[in-house]
Amino acid sequence: MAQLRASFPANFWASDPSSYFELGAFVSAAADFGVMPSLCEPSGLVGEEFLAAGTPLVCAATGGMRGRVSSSGAARNGLLFEAGQHMPLLLSLREAAALHADADAYAALRAAAAASATDVSHTARSWHAELLRLRACLRVAGGGGGSPFGRELPEAAEPVGRGAA
Predict the structure, then answer these.
(1) Taking the first listed entry, what is the main subcellular location of this protein, grouped into a coarse class (predicted)?
(2) Which of the residues 22, 36, 43, 113 could staple to 59 if both were Cys, CB 3.0 to 4.6 A apart?
(3) Pick the residue with more confidence: 68 or 18?
């Protein structure tokens, strides 16, 4: 991020690149689009942060984002392009610029992005459960309940946000 700030001083507002983690919601809201050219995006939590800020996405049609981004109709909240291909990305960025230039179309896109935001606590609980499953597999692989890494794994904590059943 320091290199980006040095290369593009007029476009990089953060005085301290590490402040993104403190001010990320403001960065997401201030962005015109969230661009995610990932080759693999299993759950797309960064995309969810952009949507929660009402920022439309331009992202590769891969993983979890493929099902989260609608690129047509009234629920259109961004643009999808074929992962791993530069020309579809460039065409999507050109389309994003055209949408941004049309104030009404861009306002509708931002409204749809905000409306499509979801509570990611279910995703967090699912990842926690999967990590616990993998942890149990490591114990079995190590034999005798020990860890294959030569040290014991700490006991797992309850997932954050989970209420009593």
Answers:
(1) plastid
(2) 36
(3) 68
* CATH no. of 31-115: 3.40.50.2000
Question: Which residue in 151, 157, 126, 125 sits closest to 139, CA to CA?
Answer: 151
Q: E strands within 37-138?
A: 57-60, 78-81
Question: Is the pLDDT confidence value at 162 over 50?
Answer: no
Measured between alpha carbons, how far is 69 from 77 in angstroms, rounded to an integer? 6
Residue 85 zone, left/alpha/beta (φ > 0; ψ -120 to 50; rest): beta
Element (H, E) at 34: strand 34-36
CA 28 to chain centre: 11
Domain boundaries, the chain: 31-115, 120-165
pTM, full prediction: 0.66
Q: In what order do the strands lie in the sheet with 57-60?
A: 34-36, 57-60, 78-81
Q: What angle do CA 19, 25, 28 make, to 5 degrees?
A: 100
Do 128 and 90 contact (CB within 8 A), yes or no? Answer: no
